[in-house]
Amino acid sequence: MGLTTRRPSAKKVHSLSKPMKKQDLTENPPVTYHIVFASCKQTLPEAVKSRPSSSTHKKVVVALADRTSLPGYLNPARLQQNQPIALLTPDGEHRDIEMKDIRAIYFVREFGDKYEPQRKAFFSRPKLDGLWVRLTFLDRDTLEGVVPNDLLALLDYGVHITPPDLNGPAVRIYVPRSALASMTVLGVVGVARRQLAAAASSAQPKLFSD
Fold it and tell me: Which phi and psi (to 5°) does residue 83 adopt?
């Protein structure tokens, strides 16, 4: 049984050798781009928590006149008399608190239930530089501390003191004048006291001259 080969017909050969239709490659078909915007849903408190706090805002606990407290962040440079303070809570809420409703502002190391100093008086003469004072609140409660030896600062709208418990939760306390009944200077301490003593000794007349 022999094998037969079939040649393509002339018609098919002609169809294969048919020239291709010219196409204008400069004409590009229109292209449609689909842009998808991903939505990031984030609440305001979460956004504030994830954002680092500014260096000008310090951790504070605001003690109110009714003995309640509010933690948050505060710019100490904006403490002014008769103007509300702008407190940023840890949840990201802004709260305005009237100065007349504030008992004291505690600048704390960390937030916690205990923010007041354990000791409210010095056991002995403090070694810090400044004026040793005793603050008397309107409810007759007292608190000792050291303030800068600057009379112009004492004429301000409030008193910034360093509490007796240096290792306590509060490193500094601000007390508005509206919360105070009186402030008594107990003495000059630190370098200022030694300078006053040296000036007094040099001013004394000598009994015997060399």
Answer: -125, 135
Residue ranges in the chain modelled with pLDDT below 50: 10-17, 37, 40-52, 208-210
Q: Are 183 and 132 in contact (CB under 8 A)?
A: no
Per-residue confidence (pLDDT) for residue 35, from 0 to 100: 53
Q: What is the DSSP string of 10-72?
A: HHHHHHHTPPPPP--TT-PPP------PPP----HHHHHHHSPPPTT-EEEEEEETTS-EEEE
Give the right CATH number for 48-108 from 1.20.1270.10, 2.30.30.100, 3.40.50.1970, 3.40.50.720: 2.30.30.100
Cα–Cα distances in Å, from 90 out to 44, 57, 69, 95, 160? Answer: 11, 12, 13, 11, 24
Query: How many residues belong to the chain?
Result: 210
CB count within 10 Å of CB 170 equals 21
Residue 89 per-residue DSSP state: -
pLDDT of residue 7: 56
**Pairwise CA distance, residues 49 & 157, whole Å:** 32
Report d(CA 146, CA 25) in Å as an integer: 87
The candidate with the shortest Cα–Cα distance to 177, out of 158, 151, 155, 161, is 158
